[in-house]
Amino acid sequence: MAVPILSGRTRFGVFELDLCSGELRKQGIKIKLHDQPFQVLAMLVQHPGEVVTREQLRQRLWPADTFVDFDVGLNSAIKKLRDALADSAEAPRYVETLPRRGYRFIAAVENIPSPAPHDLAVQVDDSSTAPTTRLSDKIAALPAESSKASLVGARRWIAASAGAVALLALLVSLNTGGLRQRLLRASATTRIQSIAVLPLENLSGDPSQEYFADGMTEALITDLGKIGELRVISRTSAMHYKGTRKTLPEIARELNVDAVIEGAVLRSGDRVRITAQLVQAASERHLWAESYERDLRDVLALQDEVARSIASEVKIKLTPQEQARLASGRPVAPEAHEAYLRGRYEWNKWTEEGLKKSVEYFERAIQKDPAYAQPWAGLSDTYQFLSLWDSWPAEVAMPKAKAAALEAVDLDDTLSDAHVALWGVLWPYERSAAEKEVQRAIALNPNNAWAHQAYGYQLSSVARFDEAIAEMKRALELDPLAPNKHQSLAATLYRAGRYDEALQHFREVPDPDATSERRHRFIAAIYERKGMQKEAIAEWLTALRFSGQKELAEQAERKYVSSGYSKAKKTCLWGDIKEKQEKRARNGFGQAGWIAVDYALLGEKNKAFEWLDKGFREGSIAWDLKVSDHYELLRSDPRFQDFLRRLDLPH
């Protein structure tokens, strides 16, 4: 491969490469790049789509008589180049590695002709799809031999432009030909009202630092979520695109957003740097890019600053309350912040083991900085889920959860997650107080998908179904790729008697999933309501197999063939009761609510009330007692009304 002469300017993505001046710019901002990484980039860009071998790069960078550890030197140059481009070896957008062979430049490359004086206006008037570049940079990029004439031409063009702007302003003020309305409509079409923060790239090169990049991504999502006029996609859905090769327009369509934030994070010693860029999704037009660097103690203030900058760029006017919330980042002990991020990283794995590890990390964070509210809220969440999953006894976990939530709220009353945590421990027994907490959580962060989902549960429990469905739909809009948001909406539609809509959402959740058993039991109940017994028993069998009860599923299937649906369903329920009682005996706690449901479906009233009472005393009472059709056969019994009173439910 012949090496071409270094000349001219090229553009790829948001970058411009000037081979004459040896400069790399990103949206007009000069990017620092040393000679060897620059030479590598120049060689790759001049041969886009072709393999540039390691030997060719060696010949270019290190002549034969140069003594150097070539592999180390080239690997270092490639790493520095990727750092400058915010590129990734695992999911490259620019430089692709071909192991043991070389590298290939995979982005589209566009030649940029040097502008003549009379072309200046054309160069400045970028199309809506081109990356924006500052006028001063374009003037500075003019050839030196024509600089005097160019500057004269530039001044004339600027003067003419000023006159044109004045004329345009006059026409708009007079509304000539309806111009004002047309311009306002054009402006409105480009307004950004929804956004997704894609996972920030870990620039450390150390996979063990992924927790830090993921934590900073979640923190930025949380801070942007405080802005009421902006719809911000939740972390669960955003993290689906970690390492993705999908294009920005594809991601935007899947998440239904106007723009995305891309970026990277680097922690070095006691410093942390975030680089972020705002991209209009449909056109891939880069609207803004900036880097921020702070001491680790000021990392919360750094996150707030990035969020405020993004709000400014998308032209959203913050309310005084939002401004206050985005300026409240207190100093935090670096060791506490690191432990908190590790705790959330484990928590987000959504496994029993991960939850138990997160308890250790949250407690360590609290030990390092007792006034740090976030780990207190995280600790409360974790205790609650360990209880919900029957990993810890509710009578042990829930008092701990309540104490942690109260401490979090006391330390930071503006922390939305703290109010949701407190809602979780209040709402089974103190519903009025719980409703105030979840409403407060939504007011503080209108994009908190879990808060909307939680409020949907509370509204559903008292049969306020229209409001509950609206909250569940809002949660799904904010977290469209989260299976539990689909399931919660579907279950709410089911309780409201909207069976076909419920079935549609249940079917959108793929198996296997943490809630597969329960979801298939819901689907079985829908088919039973619709008189589709064959389909209903199939769903029952699927639910049993997902719960590990394969022998019971086979027994129920034989019973269906020999005796029909009713006998097969009873076989399923009796077998399920036996399995759950055995599990309860092994653990010494848990399962009371589910056992009560099975007895209620069987019409075994005394047994059902016995287990409901156990659930109430153990702190694991069924919250949907008033509205679920599981308890239909119990509703005429006076004991049922007594339970509604004990749970502060209308009766």
Which features characterize this protein?
651 residues; alpha+beta; Arc Repressor Mutant, subunit A; Rossmann fold; six-stranded mixed β-sheet; 29 helices; elongated
What is CATH's topology name of the domain at 194-331? Rossmann fold
Uncertain runs: 1-7, 115-174, 176-189
Q: How would you sum up the global shape?
A: elongated
Please give the count of helices. 29
Radius of gyration: 30 Å
What distance separates the N and C termini?
83 Å
Query: What is the number of strand segments?
Result: 14
CATH architecture of the domain at 194-331: 3-Layer(aba) Sandwich
Give the class-level CATH name of the domain at 194-331: Alpha Beta
Oligomer: single chain
Biggest sheet record: 6 strands, mixed
Description:
- It contains 29 helices and 14 strands.
- By secondary structure, it is α+β, with helices and mostly antiparallel strands.
- Among the domains are: 9-112, Winged helix-like DNA-binding domain superfamily/Winged helix DNA-binding domain (Arc Repressor Mutant, subunit A, Orthogonal Bundle), CATH 1.10.10; 117-189, no CATH class; 194-331, 3-Layer(aba) Sandwich (Rossmann fold), CATH 3.40.50.10610; 589-651, no CATH class.
- Strands 9, 10, 11, 12, 13 and 14 form a 6-stranded mixed β-sheet that branches. Strands 4-3-2-1-8 form a 5-stranded antiparallel β-sheet, covered by helices on one side.
- Helix 17 (416-426) runs antiparallel to helix 18 (431-444), helix 19 (449-461) packs antiparallel against helix 20 (465-478) and helix 22 runs antiparallel to helix 23.
- The radius of gyration is 30 Å and the shape is elongated.
